[in-house]
Amino acid sequence: SPIKRPKALVCYICGREFGTASLEIHLKTCKKKWEEEQALKPKNERKPLPQPPKNFDDMVAGKVNS
Fold first, then answer.
1. Which of 4, 33, 49, 51 has a C-alpha 20 to 30 A away from that of 24?
2. What's the CA gap between 48 and 1, in Å, rounded?
3. Helix (H, G, I), strand (E, B), or coil: what is residue 8?
4. Where residue 13 falls among pLDDT bands split at 50, 70, 90?
5. In this structure, are residues 66 and 15 in contact, taking their beta carbons and an 8 Å threshold?
């Protein structure tokens, strides 16, 4: 029988895959890193922090299938 992988979600900021519990922890550091990297760029090249997809909080909580 095929091996089942634990449920994972993709970080909407960096694109890496994390388990549902780890993702919440990761997002805090990923947001900070994004903002620090953008601050080093000239103002006209900076991008705003990506916004989470619709129902993202529910997906993390396991209420919605991804």
1. 4
2. 45
3. strand
4. very high
5. no
Q: Which residue has the tokens 């091996």?
A: 3
DSSP-derived 3-state class of residue 64:
coil
Strand positions, DSSP E, 1-66? 8-10, 17-19
Looking at residue 38, its pLDDT comes to 98
Largest Cα–Cα separation, the chain: 53
> What CA–CA distance (Å, rounded) separates 19 from 27?
12
Other beta carbons less than 10 A from residue 11's beta carbon: 17
In tens, the pLDDT along 23-59 reads 989 999 999 999 999 999 999 999 999 999 988 888 7
Question: Comparing C-alpha atoms, which of 42, 41, 63 is closest to residue 54?
Answer: 63
Neighbour-count burial of 38, counting CB atoms closer than 10 A to its CB (0-12 exposed, 13-18 middle, 19+ buried): middle
